[in-house]
# Entry
Amino acid sequence: MEWKVSALKKKVEIACQASKEEKEELDELRRVHDKIEVRYLDLKAQLFRLSKLIGNCPTCLRPVGKEIEGPKAELQSLLFGVARKMTSAVAARGKKSEVFMENLRAFEHMKGRLEKLLDLKDSVEDRFHSYQTELASESASAKVESELKATINKSQSKLKIIVKALQQTEREKIFLEYCISVLSRAGLPAHLAYQLCPMLNAAAQQYSKMLTGGLLSVKFVLDGTDIDVQVTNIQGGAGLLDQSNGETRLLSIITGFALRQVLAPCNVIVLDEPGTGLDAHNARVFARAMKRIPESFGSVLLTTHSPAIISELEDCHHLQVVKENRVSHIEV
# Structure
């Protein structure tokens, strides 16, 4: 702010000096113009008097005429030259006046800017003094604030230590509760059942969708230390005894697959007449699902008399057992 004011002051001083010099030049032009104008009027008066000399000379009584032509022409030439000088002086004076007025307006503009900057400087200085006063009053409590911050930081450090200790205690509490629940008399079976139920339900849901499209489902529920099996039939009865033979057969297959997958994983599973009690439609659905079963068990050995199942598994490997005259033999 200070350097801006100083620079503008210097410009105003320069403009003021230039304005004074231009005013002096303008005054000098005005004086020259006035002298030329006086000379012009004097010559014009002489020429007017010379033009009035007509008739006889009052001194020598000789006719006046041709004798005044030379002085008259000379006066006219001088008058013309003076008129040109006066015209040039008027033009120069007018041009100088325009430059002077333009510089005067620029000077007034810079003067106005300087006044605004001075006002702004005063305002800034007032604000600066106000800020200094506020800073002085705030610095008086700086020591107290510093001590308070140190106390807060120390308290925060203690709080972190306490929180960490509480978290460790909570983890130890959870571990002890887990040990008590597992190692008690009924805890271990319940714990194992609790761990198995989600896996059994996930497997049962998978085979329910695969075999029945989700219409028949099995849910394993923890009942104390035991696992209870609940069935759901969207289109039929609510309990196991309310199901048809085919539905009961499918539910038992879903349950068996889930138990085998979770409790006793293997790479070969044997199914003996799984289509018993199934109508042709459900038998075909079951057979189509069997093609995806090897993804879970590796290989499936299936014995059946159901034509529906045999036709659906036509592209699988077949072994046909034929009994003739009480003698059984295998046809590949």
In short: DSSP finds eight helices and eight strands in the chain. The chain has a mean pLDDT of 76. The first strand starts at residue 55 and ends at 56.
